[in-house]
Every structure is written in C-alpha cells, then in structure tokens.
Design goal:
This is Outer membrane efflux protein. By secondary structure, the protein is mainly α. It is 75% helix and 0% strand. It has a domain of 75 residues: Helix Hairpins (Orthogonal Bundle), CATH 1.10.287. The chain is elongated and about 75 Å long.
C-alpha cells in the first residue's frame, strides 16, 4: 500500500536508469527553484517567514550542487576505470608471456575490478542525487 499499489499485486523491480550528462545539462535550476518553491509545503505554510524561504532556497541549491559534485565524481571514477582497464590488459599480455608474476597480475586485476565497482557506486549515487533534486 505504501507504493500506491494494491497489496495483492507483485511489483516488478527493474534496472535503475543511468543519468546522462544531457539530462543534467538540461536542468534549468532557477526555473526549477521557482516551480519547487511554489509547491513547497514548508514555504506555503509559513509564507510570511523569510527564514523558511531562505532555508528552502539554500537547501534547494545545495541539492543541485550535490548533483553536480556526484556527476564530477562519476567522471573521475570513469577515468580511473579506463586507466585501470588499460593497465589490466597490459598485465594480461605480460602474464601470458610470462613476464610478470601471478601476484602482480592478480593485483592489477583487483585494481581493475575495484574501479569497476567504484564506477557502479558513483552511478548509483548520481542517480540518488538526481532523484533528490527531482
């Protein structure tokens, strides 16, 4: 019932969509602020208070700033993954020759897998920040 569904209906969980750079760059933060301000219960209930309006504005723009920070963190994680991928591919070739040890190969593989996980986490936190902004 909490999700607006009848209790006897099975919910289907889908893949979380990745937020694109285009979606973020298409944001008009000032127009969104005016729309959100007009819909905010806190602002509407306390419309005579400059304090609630000021707090809402600070919180709104902070949410947008967080979104931009998460986008930047994702771009950084993707660059690190690309570098780790290149290093791992070279390690695979060197290990097959064999010019590096199994230990070095596994270390490079571990670094690559860690960077893949870091990108997935960054994508998820970006999605959460985008949903918070919405």
């Amino acid at each position: 019932m909490n999700l607006g569904q009848d209790a006897d209906i099975d919910l289907a969980v889908g893949i979380v969509p990745v937020i694109s750079k285009q979606q973020i760059s298409a944001i008009n933060v000032d127009a969104d602020y005016l729309t959100a301000k007009g819909r905010s219960y806190d602002v509407l209930l306390d419309s005579n208070s400059d304090n609630s309006k000021s707090k809402f504005k600070i919180d709104f723009y902070q949410t947008y700033q967080t979104l931009l920070e998460k986008q930047s963190a994702l771009a950084s994680a993707q660059q690190k993954r690309t570098a780790a991928d290149s290093k791992f591919k070279i390690s695979e070739l060197k290990y097959k020759m064999p010019s590096i040890s199994l230990l070095q190969y596994e270390a490079d593989k571990s670094e690559y897998l860690s960077q893949q996980i870091a990108v997935e986490i960054a994508e998820e936190t970006l999605t959460q920040a985008y949903r918070a902004y919405e």
